[in-house]
Amino acid sequence: MNRFEYVVVSIDGDYANLKRTDIESDELKLVARALLPPVIVEGTKLCYEWMSYSILE
After folding, report:
1. 3-state DSSP assignment of residue 54
2. Rounded CA gap, 22 and 14, in Å?
3. pTM for the whole thing?
4. What DSSP string runs through 5-40?
5. Is 42 helix (H, G, I), strand (E, B) or coil?
6. pLDDT tens digits, residue range 8-56?
7. Closest Cα to residue 48, out of 28, 20, 24, 27?
């Protein structure tokens, strides 16, 4: 299974904009906050693996 790393760029209501950090990309991914860990803020680093997001330390 693939693993992707993101950083939370902005939070807009029920959605968050994520930017890939494991590759060079300027594209943002819009993700429903219900799919993300409940304690995210702008700048939180996330890992997407096995169809779920978790916070990277």
Report:
1. strand
2. 25
3. 0.91
4. EEEEEEEETTEEEEEESSS----EEEEEGGGS-SS-
5. coil
6. 999 999 999 999 999 999 999 999 999 999 999 999 999 999 999 999 9
7. 20
